Amino acid sequence: MMTKLRGLAPTLAAVTLAVAAALAVAPALLASPVAAARVQSASNTERALIQPAGSAPRTQALSAPAVDSLVQAFHAAHRPVGLVVAVTTPAGDHIAAHGVPSLEKGAPPVDGASRFEAGSITKVFTALLLADMAARGEVSLDDPIGEYLPDDVAVPAFDGEPITLRHLAMHTSGLPRLPANLVPADMADPYAAYDEALLHDFLRDFEPTRAPGERYEYSNLGAGLLGHLLARRAGKPFDALVAERILEPLGMRDSYIAGEENDGTAGDDDARLATGYVGQNAVAWWHFGALPGAGALRSTATDLLRLLRAQLEPGASPLEAAIHLSRRNRAPVAENVSIALGWHVSALPDGTEMFWHNGITGGFRGFVGFAPAHDVGVVVLTNSAVPPQAVDQLAVQVALMVAGERSAEMP
User: Fold this and answer.
1) How far apart are alpha carbons 242 and 201 in whole angstroms?
2) How many Å is the Cα radius of gyration of the chain?
3) Second label for 255, Cα 20 to 30 Å away, from 25, 179, 242, 266?
4) Which CATH class is domain 12-409?
């Protein structure tokens, strides 16, 4: 029987409803992006210029009060322990931060350098790693997964059609959301004991029910398997591979994958890592065993802005080829929603697109997204188990508000 677990990201239906709800308020936001009065509070609101590695100085000109108003309203409604919202535009970056990383006495306020579990946002990095390795000629997107598995692991196929690396990155492999043999030893840290032997055992026994590529079905297993295969191809642990190929080139020096070494607990002594909460109760950090590519990233709002700025300005990024490759591959998901390599892509009211991914672990929620036509990116991170749809909606509202400002400024 399939183990019942809360996934790393909300169901497609929940995400679609949340995005739709946010888009429903778009006309008002776009027409009057600064209409709401700024809410004065004693919370810590940080305004900072975040300088991406290697970029020229930028000035801050976006309407910070308008962003802060939305963030403060969210904080009042959901009372997260800590919340950081970050926005990037060509004019500059803005960070609004409320609360603390821990309820322990004396904890400093959260800010752009506070580290959170990113959950399924990790999948964007796993897919970007695939695109980078494909751009270098180390793999092909259409390589069958069997090329990177041990000889004694039977490769699932449907009517002889193999699952490929592309299928894993686009959630069209036909693999289930979770492996049937995932039976958590500790429900507070459900993936921790799922090792390589269990993963390979699942693949030996799995029988696909449809052809790969036939349709989208979100799969934590598929993304985790992709990371596992890329690490096997490179001959090094996934955490080290992501650091070398993605994090270091983007200047994301405050981010890391909770690694395969030390039973996946690398970083648990990290003083800047926030504690996750359900209500006022602290919960365990998550570890991912053989599936770190599904959700093991720990990152900061400042670092995730660097990812988004690279996506918005790929020509200035050392990962330009990988970024372009990851975004031009598409498969349908639902009306006005498609999937690229790792990124979901939703249509905005003006016909342009927003690339995004969200993430959930036991006590954390997150969202990253960017709208290329408007040159806007947004990050939301919280260390509280607030409704994930609310986080998605806040992120899209902020993005649309700033996009509306950007459109009004254009001649």
Assistant:
1) 26
2) 20
3) 179
4) alpha beta
